[in-house]
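#dry-run=false #mode=assembly
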Amino acid sequence: MKCLLIASESAEVLFHWTDPDFQQSIQEQYGSSQEEGQGLPAFEDSISTLFAPIVISCSTMMDRLGDGYTSFTAENNHLYILHQVDECVYIAVNGDGEEGEDDLRRKIYVMKKLIEVLFGMVTLSSPLLRKELRPQDTERRARLWKHLQGLLDTYCRLRDSDQSFLVEAVERLIHPTLCEQCIEFLERRLVQQLNSSAERAGEEVLHAFILVHTKLLAFYSSRSASALSTSDLLTLIVMAQNMYPSSADLDDPGPEDIDSTSGSGQESYYTPEPSPTDNDSSDSDKPLIGGTPVFEFIDPDVQMAEDSLQTLEVPPPDPSTPCRVFLEVSGKDGLYPMMPHSLYCLPLWPGITLVLLAKVPTSAVAMSVYTFLEAFAKLEKRLHEGHEGSAATRGQLSVHELRHKLDKFIKALAQSEIQTAHLQNVWTEFKNRAFAKGGPGLSKGLIGWCKNMKTQLCGIYRQCFLIESGSAHVPRHLSSALQERAQTMVQDTLMDWKDFLLVKSKRNITMVSYLEDFPGLIHFICVDRSTGQMIAPSLSITERTTSELGKGPVAQFIKSKVWSLVNTTRHYLRKGYSTVTLRDGDFYFCYFLWFENETGYKLDAGEIPILPDDSAPIGMLAWNYYRKLLRYYSKNHQGEVVKCYELLTVHLGVIPTEIILQHCRQLASKLWEPSRNPLL
Amino acid sequence: MAELMTPDSRRCSYFFLYDGSKVKGEGDPTRDGICYFYPEETPLDRQELLCGQLAGVGRCVSEVSSSPVRALRLRHNKYAIRMEDDFFWALGCSVEVPTVSVCELLDQLINLFCFYNGPVRQSYQLNGREPLAARWAQYLSHLQSGSSELQHIFSCVRTMDSTNVDPLLLLKAALILQACQRCPLVLAGCILFRGRVVSTQMSPELTMKVMVHESETYATSHIPSGPGSSSSVAPSVSSTTVFLTLSELQDLQAAPVDKPFSSRSTPHKDAPMKKTRLSRTLSDMASTESDTSDPASDQAPQKTSFAPCLSESESSMFSPSASQSSTDPSNPPPHSPKPNSQQAEEAALDESHYHSFHSDADGGGPVCGEEDRSARGPGSQLKDGDPDAVCETALDREAETGKEESSSGGGSEEEVGGSAVGPEAERGPAPGSGAPVDPAGAPLIPMTLYLHRVKSLVLALLVQPHFLSDTASVEEVYHSSLASLNGLEAHLRSIPPRVPGAPGPYLFAHFDRIQGTLTTNLSGRPGGAPQHPFVRATSLLHSHFCNTETLQEAIIRSAGAAVYGTSSVAQETYFQQHGGSLRNSGIPNHQDSAFSLPSKARHRLLKHGVNLL
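#status=ok
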């Protein structure tokens, strides 16, 4: 019994994801009075009725006590996790014991991350996001929710089956020669050719990588690109897997099966197929493409965005339309979150995918919008704190500079097709209040206008990057011919390796190679947190394949132990414990986290911050805990490159502890030898 | 209670009982439903806010999950919740306290209320809110009085400092209790000294409940409150009605010795006793005689002969029935063969060690049977040389003259006890038919708590309700124990307060899960800076042990401290070594001092009577 719900503060359902059990239990409670064929609205109504008191109590508690709910437990061990973001409440429920508190909180954060990647800075404005997540048009809403549900299903499947998603780090295929050849190919031939083609419509391919199932075969970033963060890379893998699910993982009832039992008979289901010609990839865009003009504007703040949509029509789904994703970019002048990119997932063979990430030509607008948003947010904060006048702008973009830049920005926008009337109106009003002689100046009265400006800026951003502009005929992305060419080129190159790669991805490294040196060792996972990469012997247990642990209950048991060990160690890490050893049943588990400098010199174990129970989950996918940890630790190691590693081992309990610790030490030093090639 | 409650040592920040049945209509104000709110000085609108919101959310969640809510957590507080027919309890603690502990505390609180007042709904029908509010306040302050942070984690019975008390005094206390049990109307008892347990025959949970009344009467200087009343026997005796759950009553009535003894062909002296029961009494011992007709067990008949022998040689010092059992014709001759008598002494000592919480009383810690032999020495010394004891015996015998009906052998006594209790349970409201029902849905059976105070010493006995009307029994119990209690009190009072020695270069906490006792070298005051990491680690590990049954051992290390924890069905032990180089790189290293903690703990804790082998 699982459920994830996003609701606005007024208890309007903005998104829900439920498994059949949960739906059934809700429907049982409400009886079968609802008519057939009304599945979705009826279910949505009942879920909204059920959760409304909780959501409303959340905001009441927040308003009156300044303390919000974080979790509920029922006597039958049903677990509820709550998380408030701006004006939205996320609630994740588990009633089957398969997910713990951390899993649920992680799911919420992953959902949040997925929404950020799909909607970018629109997420910074609650009213806009609310409209984005809950389109007025039921069909569009159903389609969008289906897509998000699919992504969440894919994530859950990966989290439960894939070790790299368990520890939230990328796993590479261990084959140095092939890997190198591929990188060279991507660099010298593919990306170069794409970026020099006239058919790229102003886009520039920044990153290209090849995925074999969830594992990375080769990754190339062009020189002008900033590094792709692990968090974004993992999210992209989830999206790629959602479009082209690995066939091997489909033995199990996939997300499609679950959906089809939802009782909403009239809907066609989102069933991704490994073909570029189906409309999956565009599916994700469709809800974003044509904002239909049915909005009812209650909120005057948001008015501008709607007008601009009046004339838009839904373009026909185009299979070659890329997915718009918003990723973090670290420029010379700082970090820019949520910068627009185009994501192309090109299936090579079932299980093998080429992923291209291109920069959109207008991305400079996004940077400006972000700069302005930040400036207004800071101004608002200072005003809130009671600073007025010039004190309100200390330590940031000066108000006059802001004024000058924003004037210029609006002028430039006006020349494009972007509708700026509302932004202009609000900005003029803002200027009148802030700068007019004899006016109130920079005072508390401006707080509302700061908010309004932020909403308008988010609206501009939405127009630029979430909605295809009216001139749909002008190509805005790599042409389909160009995409096909890229696909063929890589296919030709990898043809001979295809089968090898598919097998290799299931048997990347195997425990057999370690048994002789490490008797009694059952499993290990080693993670380099500075690069976000991990190594672990394969542990895939499906109906057809057997792992080295065999099939059936024993393998399943060990797998479940590994999964719970990771959760346990995270729990201790959250409380500041970086070394944990556990004797549990017939097993002995070890966990170590340590720091090294670039030359491999082991640094002293520093103090690790203690986090509250309801803080963001430890990991790299939704929230990069390790980046924060490294930054925290590096404070005492100025001028040194600090690396962070983790090692988990599972041994037989009968092995003497000294031997186990020796094993751990050897593994730790061997696995990441300078060659970066773990012993095989 | 000895310790005063300091504000920051409060375990609980909020507690309330909300009666949803009082707030049914739209217009009903929330305040009508608030039966009790702690802290009482909380502004009413805040009380209403918390009650209204938490109860509302609780109801909503229980609707979605079709199950009552157990815990609600907020960012700064966590609440244990109990929901039962329209009643809604919430107990709020800081988020630092493990959720298991908070829930346990709330259960304790509610159970305490039911123990003294019977079912909640019925109490509120019979009494006004104010007197019951005073009760909640009293129980809450009692439960919060444990001032150390460790006591917030483990709910434990507070016992005498075992290292500071002559084990023979503990033995004596145990024997007083056994003697009282000779009266068939007495179910079980415990002896408390200055709010700490000296010896008990009851489960830790029940002992804790009984202690509340003791501390109450202690605080109000012998004036019993509530439904209690002074006895006609003596002003120092009081009694009150209490309510036991069916399972508690069954535990008390069960004749725990019989089964393990008669069914096992190769009895191993100490193991089964420890596992199966908390206390044994002389009458229990004797009762094995009638039960052990199993011819397959060749050891059992031998065992049965201990009882009279014990009555004669050992407990004649303390037991009122010594003379009678020796004259009882149904008993074997008093002079049994020597090996038997030795074994009997061992058995008696063994058990008294056990249920007076002092398995570690002799420094070395005679937990195992072998070590008990060493404990026999001082025992015989006392028999020979303690003038008090002699004096008591004389008094005891004098007191006994009036009671003839209980002079039959131990075995029949047990039978009488059993049959007396059985019908009572049935005669009382039958389960499920309009009977008072405790929150768990099980019927509550009224019993009587009898208290006999001798200065700071209290003998508390759970007795059948008609015990008080049975003047003969009351007098018998009173007089038979009076002298021994006086003697015990004098001895306990004369014990000098323990000089706190150097705590040693380590910290430890040992929680006995069966007896519910905590042994630690942590000083009681809260918030000791160097101890805090230890308490934090202990709290984390305790939750982990509670949630993962298969977990046996754990070592966790932060930058400042490495703590070792081990757990079994019987105990949980936590250990931290001070000093030493804690600087480490965090990488796996078998020479790391953290990994020698298990062996150090085994070695160091032996002298505290904690055996981790």
